[in-house]
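Severity: low
Component: inverse-folding endpoint
Summary: output formatting inconsistent between runs
Steps to reproduce: submit the following structure tokens with default settings.
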């Protein structure tokens, strides 16, 4: 019986040896050689891999990419392609010899240069003199982040370098940020900063840097006057100009008052036509503060020494007493256009009448004269029609308004860089070379909605440059909104039928705001080895686009890694950009995958059945050999009878 039981055990040992040989995936002798032995490639590239062996035996070789097998070759070398379009792609070489196989895995590292590098302030768009100001460099969609290096530049010179080697090794795209804090004086206004990001793989070299645009720092400080009090002396009736010299950033705006009353003047210089003893106050202000200056004007009265002799020549009369009629009485003319006005009279004793003007002057002895010019090109044009009779001399001045539409109208932000949600900003509408400015009306639009209008008190009649400002406190919904301004000359009933208008191009607001969760399920059920966290239908928003990191049991995970059943539980997403971060959680339940019986399982079952039958036959033959019993063919003879069993000496029938 000992011998009878030993044989099945031997057969079972052979069977175990057979399976161990089928699973011989250890080291290959001779060793498999991969060329290249490892790959560092850009996402989306395709690399060619060669695998060779010094073994001269006849064997099968093939390459694997993931679960995909390339065409086998019965040679000692095989070549195949690997497309780097999956951050978790794997590749290996397989050598199959009889019932044994060995494998060698290709080391793969995939990278992607930053999609964009953006530099901007973290909070205030402008730096306040003497206070800390922080810039942030956002590197968007780069991999792998643990090889990322960020360099800061001021006026073209490197001032700091940050690396991210401390981060855990991850696969897939991510976004990271670097911040720079500095304090500025007003003399440093306009300092230019930018940052560059590149991937450094040590002995394998560095990839080309991606640079941000240049951010010029605008240093703001409160309005300041050069002196606080000034004394002005003169004679009564003199023309006096008061100069209110101030500096500040943003540039200060001015206002004037006399005896507590606003004079409606907004320029730094105040012109006084007839000076009298008075105290004028100039106020210069910007959003950081204001300051005032006192002008003490003192004039001396002029003594009249004597009266002039009697006038013997006719004095010009006032227009009310002058029998001249202008047709039309008022005109509005675009600078450079033609003009024509008729002057007529019904006065008797006419000696002479005509026009006095820089161009188009006439003289006539008839009762009608016409001022006509092909082009009005003198801003000092002030046509006057005069009349001389035997008894009087009089004149009437033509009321003429020369106008010119703006050469350009443009909208810009006083503070460079993107806006930040909830922070107040100033938009500026610049209107160049327009006249007359007192007829100008600026209208601000948010989309197609009118949000503000402004008129001007400047009495200048020649073309000037003016600007209008509009305060905005953007919200996240303001991101991408379009702002524009119109400059219209409202010239009254004598003006052109269509109001002369010049419009700016739209200014697109770029608003940075904290991350938010738009949609994300509270729970989800997935199938093991088929579901990964990045397949959740979560939609996150933020500007700059936030980075998303997933955690399981407070540990950072690879969101593209398929999950198993024992990894069910709560997963937390951390959504973050330089303005803040938020978290959201999803309860994930991983279910068993339906069993799939592959070809290998069926072959194993067939093999096991074969081995069991083989062992049974062996046992039967063993007993027959030792005289216990034997099997005789039960196949019937030609006459239909089988071979009968015979009785052995030990009593066993056979």
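Observed output (run 2 of 3):
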């Amino acid at each position: 019986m000992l011998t009878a039981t030993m044989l099945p055990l031997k057969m079972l040992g052979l069977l175990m040896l057979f399976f161990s040989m089928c699973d011989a995936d250890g080291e290959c002798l001779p060793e498999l050689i991969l060329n290249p032995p490892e790959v560092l490639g850009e996402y989306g590239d395709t690399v060619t891999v060669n695998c060779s062996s010094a073994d001269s035996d006849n064997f099968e070789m093939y390459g694997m990419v993931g679960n995909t097998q390339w065409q086998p070759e019965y040679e000692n070398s095989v070549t195949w392609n690997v497309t780097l379009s999956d951050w978790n792609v794997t590749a290996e070489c397989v050598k199959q010899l009889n019932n044994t196989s060995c494998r060698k895995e290709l080391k793969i590292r995939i990278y992607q240069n930053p999609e964009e590098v953006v530099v901007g302030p973290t909070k205030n768009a402008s730096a306040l003199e003497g206070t800390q100001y922080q810039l942030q460099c956002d590197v968007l969609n780069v991999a792998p982040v643990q090889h990322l290096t960020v360099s800061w530049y001021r006026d073209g010179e490197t001032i700091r370098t940050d690396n991210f080697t401390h981060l855990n090794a991850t696969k897939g795209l991510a976004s990271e940020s670097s911040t720079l804090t500095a304090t500025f004086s007003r003399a440093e206004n306009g300092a230019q900063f930018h940052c560059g990001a590149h991937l450094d793989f040590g002995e394998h070299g560095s990839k080309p840097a991606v640079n941000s645009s240049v951010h010029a720092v605008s240093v703001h400080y409160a309005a300041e006057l050069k002196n606080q009090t000034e004394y002005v002396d003169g004679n009564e009736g003199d023309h006096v100009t008061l100069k209110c010299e101030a500096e500040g950033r943003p540039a200060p705006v001015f206002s004037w008052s006399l005896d507590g009353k606003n004079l409606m003047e907004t320029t730094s210089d105040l012109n006084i036509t007839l000076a009298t003893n008075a105290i004028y106050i100039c106020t210069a202000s910007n959003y950081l503060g204001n300051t005032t200056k006192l002008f003490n004007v003192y004039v001396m009265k002029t003594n009249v020494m004597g009266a002039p002799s009697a006038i013997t020549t006719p004095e010009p009369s006032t227009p009310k007493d002058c029998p001249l009629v202008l047709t039309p009485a008022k005109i509005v003319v675009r600078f450079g256009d033609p003009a024509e006005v008729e002057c007529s009279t019904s006065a008797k004793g006419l000696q002479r009448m005509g026009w006095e003007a820089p161009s188009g002057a006439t003289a006539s002895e008839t009762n009608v004269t016409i001022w006509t010019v092909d082009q009005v090109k003198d801003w000092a044009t002030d046509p006057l029609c005069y009349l001389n009779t035997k008894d009087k001399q009089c004149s009437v001045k033509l009321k003429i308004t020369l106008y010119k539409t703006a050469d350009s109208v443009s909208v810009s932000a006083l503070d460079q860089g993107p806006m930040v949600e909830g922070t107040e900003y100033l938009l500026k509408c610049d209107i160049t070379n327009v006249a007359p400015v007192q007829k100008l009306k600026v209208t601000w639009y948010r989309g197609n909605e009118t949000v503000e209008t402004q008129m001007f008190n400047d009495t200048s009649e020649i073309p000037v440059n003016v600007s209008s400002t509009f305060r905005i406190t953007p919200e996240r919904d303001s991101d991408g909104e379009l702002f524009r301004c119109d400059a219209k000359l409202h010239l009254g009933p004598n003006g052109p039928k269509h109001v002369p208008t010049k419009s700016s191009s739209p200014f697109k607001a770029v608003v940075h705001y904290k991350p938010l969760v738009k949609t994300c399920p509270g729970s989800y059920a997935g199938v093991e080895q088929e579901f990964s966290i990045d397949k959740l239908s979560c939609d996150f928003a933020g500007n700059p686009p936030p980075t998303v990191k997933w955690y399981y049991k407070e540990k950072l995970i690879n969101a593209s890694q398929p999950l198993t059943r024992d990894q069910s539980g709560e997963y937390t997403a951390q959504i973050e950009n330089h303005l803040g971060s938020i978290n959201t959680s999803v309860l994930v339940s991983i279910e068993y995958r339906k069993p799939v019986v592959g070809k290998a399982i069926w072959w194993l079952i067939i093999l096991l059945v074969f081995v069991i039958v083989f062992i049974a036959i062996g046992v039967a033959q063993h007993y027959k050999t030792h005289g216990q019993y034997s099997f005789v063919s039960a196949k019937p003879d030609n006459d239909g009878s089988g071979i009968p069993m015979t009785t052995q000496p030990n009593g066993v029938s056979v």
